[in-house]
Amino acid sequence: MPTQEESLFIPLDEVTLQARLSRPASVGEPGSIPGSRPPLDEGPEPRPGPLWLVGHPHPLYGGAMDNPVVLAARDALLASAGPGVAVLRWNSRGVGRSGGSFGGGEAEAQDLAALVSRLSGGPAPPLGQALPSALGAPHGFIGLAGYSFGAFVVLRAMALGARPGAVMLFSPPLDFMSFEGLDPPRVPCLVTLGDRDEFCSRASLEAWLGAGSGPAGSGPAGSGPAGSGPAGSRPGATSPLVKILRGVDHFYFGAERALGVAVGEFISSLQPGRLRPAS
Asked: d(Cα 275, Cα 233) in Å, to the nearest integer?
């Protein structure tokens, strides 16, 4: 899919983060600027469309916003999430041209929680700089996605108060990092996992889902064509939808397309109108 992309720098409380904002390219306008409108457009100012934020894997192991899994998620979202969708990915502290230094996951989660608050129309910090105008805040729908370490950051940001409309967790590293105190999301959620993942076994994932499911229970991951579950779960229910990708390890080498299919199916199955901005 033709994609428009804009480089941004996002000022937060303590750091400025390097980021890129992607949108589907306008038909017939491959070189147009993201977010721009024809000069004679005299209609009302449009509400920003759905915005997905996609976090990258562990920065101490080479994780950055141009990671192939992050890019595969971006492409799938742009292809499936409807008109007006935008995808924001960013380099966390100390990565690329982002300020600061690695914060163990906690500082990164604080940054994400603060960004979601700002994008949702929350107040800027005292003496804080405005967000780049291309982000078009406030957004009626914000989704959060994270790969590996990025999945941890998403969950921790939610524990700090971030309230996304939907969540996608790609290979949460349950056997590498402590997820103690981090419950599975109660909003529509997709979890993908390779059955050869070195940092999150299927048993660990099922135990985490079961421990956080409360009275409803999560059930075991199912065994559909791609491996889906928990049994009887669906997007919009309290239990996440799990997709087990056969023959895939933690790094999704050669499986980016399968990941994209899982993302597209999840987006398509969300409740009608859920991705449209709130009226």
From this structure: 20
What span, in angstroms and rounded, lies between the C-alpha atoms of 279 and 270?
18
Q: Is the peptide bond prior to 2 cis by the omega test (within 30 degrees of 0)?
A: no
Instruction: Say what the pTM is.
Output: 0.84
List, for residues 220-248, the tens digit of each pLDDT value.
Answer: 333 333 454 443 344 444 589 999 999 99
| Inter-residue contact 116 to 142 (CB < 8 Å) | yes
Torsion of CA 264, 182, 148, 199, to 10 degrees: -120
Report d(CA 205, CA 238) in Å as an integer. 16
Place of tokens 């009226």: 279
Give CA separation, 98 vs 14, 51, 101, 111, 159, in Å.
11, 21, 9, 12, 24
Tokens 């979890």 — which residue?
191
Strands (DSSP E) contained in the chain are: 3-11, 16-24, 51-55, 86-90, 142-147, 166-170, 189-194, 228-229, 241-245
Radius of gyration of the CA atoms of the chain, in A: 18
Both tokens of 151, joined, read 């999945």
State the pLDDT confidence band at 271, using cuts at 50, 70 and 90: low
Q: How far apart are the first and last CA of the chain?
A: 29
Quick one: tokens of 104?
């163990």
CB 195 within 8 Å of CB 202: yes
**Omega cis (within 30) before 138:** yes
Provide the pLDDT confidence category of residue 168 given band limits of 50, 70 and 90.
very high
